[in-house]
Amino acid sequence: xxxxxxxxxxxxxxxxxxxxxxxxxxxxxxxxxxxxxxxxxxxxxxxxxxxxxxxxxxxxxxxxxxxxxxxxxxxxxxxxxxxxxxxxxxxxxxxxxxxxxxxxxxxxxxxxxxxxxxxxxxxxxxxxxxxxxxxxxxxxxx
Length: 142
Description:
The chain is α+β, with helices and mostly antiparallel strands.
């Protein structure tokens, strides 16, 4: 009887380890895809410039914030529909911020923050609970 209980405990422990490993792999896939998407959105927003108003050769950069927001929302929506890892939740743009420096020693930058909120818990074990993944990325003009 003792060997049966020990064997059953080993089997249950092994199954819990496999479940946790599978859930962790799924979490890492979502997290790495969200990181890449956030970096792409920041780069896309940073190159959305007013073509008529600023002279880039002289260091004058003016962001077209409406165009940047449309482009970032397009990228988020396209990835939400085409990536299978985002199918069981909501992928959304949290913030899109631009920084235009006052001094000439500072840099222009664009910051994008995305959030993925899952409909269910990303981990099936009771000891670990996670519903949201957020990532923030910044792109600078030096």
